[in-house]
Amino acid sequence: MSEFIHQYVPANGSPLTLLLLHGTGGDENDLVPIGRTLAPGAALISPRGKVSEGGAARFFRRLSAGVFDEQDIRLRASELAEFVKGFGLGNVFALGYSNGANIAAALMLLHPEVLAGGILLRPMVPLTPEALPDLGGKPVMILAGEHDEMTRPEITKNLASLLTRAGAKVEVRWMDAGHDLGPGDFQGIKEFVGAR
User: pLDDT by residue (tens digit) across 46-76?
Assistant: First the structure.
């Protein structure tokens, strides 16, 4: 199994597994409290990104702000897919924020067998694969900030379109927020998890 520094919380009565993917500068502890609160009883897998950018942990390299190293994305998504498969758990949904949302989208596009769906908080388009996978109606919720200084609305719409063309059932919610998360995001996560 491809190793990551991580936290793992076994399921306690829930068939759901959340793959928690932090943003730039975060770590394996960041999203665990959200997972515990909003998906009680679910198994939680929370890895730390392996790439260091000036000491800040990330899931893949970027060449500059908003410009991603697609070759590195493919390598890192493959490592992450192998890591998640090693747990042998089904019904895995990604919950990713910023850089974590981007690697979650890359997982869905490059390794669609790994995830049953995802909640993408403030994502961008990580890459466009040569051939779109068949996401077969997998549910994806994108929570975007109307005033996000890092992600323009057209980027969010492009990602939603890409995932929809691949067959995902995509819902985009626009928050009265910037790149940071707020109460509306947590409500959206809770509703998504509750519907599973």
Answer: 999 999 999 999 999 988 877 899 999 999 9
The domain ranges of the chain are 6-194
**Residue-wise DSSP of 72-125:** HHHHHHHHHHHHHHTTT-SSEEEEEETHHHHHHHHHHHH-TTT-SEEEEES---
* Residue-wise DSSP of 28-78: TTTTHHHHHHHSTT-EEEEEPPSEEETTEEESS-EEETTEE-HHHHHHHHH
Mind listing the pLDDT tens digit for each residue in 81-110?
999 999 999 899 999 999 999 999 999 999
| Residues noted as catalytic | 98, 148, 179
Q: Which of these CATH numbers, 3.40.50.1820, 3.40.190.10, 3.50.50.60, 1.10.275.10, describes 6-194?
A: 3.40.50.1820
Coil, strand or helix: which one is 181? coil
Cα→Cα distances 134→39, 55, 160, Å: 27, 37, 15
HSE-CB for 116 with a 13 A CA cutoff: 13
Handedness of CA 128, 19, 111, 55 (dihedral sign): positive
Distances (CA, A) of 83 to 20, 52, 55, 114, 139: 13, 19, 23, 10, 22
Cβ 84 vs Cβ 8: under 8 Å: no
Question: What does the alpha-carbon distance between residue 10 and residue 123 come to, in Å, rounded to a whole number?
Answer: 27
Q: Is 194 helix (H, G, I), strand (E, B) or coil?
A: helix
